[in-house]
Amino acid sequence: MAKAEKFDQDNAGNVPPERRAAWLGRWGAKVSLVLSVNNKNNFSPSLSLTKPLENAVTVFTKNGNVTTGQSRSLGIGFTSSADATRTETIGLYYSFEDLKNLTLDPTKCKPNTGPYLASDLKIDDFLMKGLDMSFQPDALLRKEGESPYTTFTYQVKFIVTTGGNLTLAWKLVELSANQSGNLFAASQIKTDELTITMGKVVTDDSGNKVPRKDFDDQHFANLIGQAVANALQTNPPQ
Fold first, then answer.
1. Residue 197's beta-bridge partner residues?
2. Which residues fall within 8 angstroms of residue 29, CB to CB, at 6 or more apart?
3. Total-model pTM
4. Nearest to 99 by CA among 4, 163, 216
């Protein structure tokens, strides 16, 4: 509420033109939410058969004999793994003018009470930083009533990793099993990526408010860059 009041104050008639943000009301936002879940399972049993043999005795003429233990062993191992990734992409578009006239019920957005991180995305703080910079005298060049910016881009990524393993080991005289590593291991990585691009909207032939081309292209470029970065992180070049 405090941020909305500041916008209204900045748009008031008694505020100098260089400190007005009325241009923000002619903007909109494209929102892309990418939800991905990566599951990894690994099953790696191992078995070692050992046959003890008679000790070997090395005879020396001086300082006594040396006894060395002997055995014969056979190792068997097996590995099976599975890796699956599920990705969901959701796209939204809002006109700030429509959002201003929208009545929201704060009770619909309940805080997260689970064990995971719950935090303010700081989107309003990001907007205020851009507005505050535009309000500084001679910081940015712009015409009266026009935006000094072309677009804003805001990206947030949340990563939640869970995993577990099971290790059962036996060691007998002639048999040992799973002496190294995990018998079974599983992990899950959940990645939520939010990309918001804000820019000027225009009215199409049907009277709908749609993103301007440079605004639309910028959001598309952001998504491509995000996809390339994720691909390089998953499969780094050799």
1. 30, 153
2. 93, 94, 96, 196, 197, 198
3. 0.69
4. 4
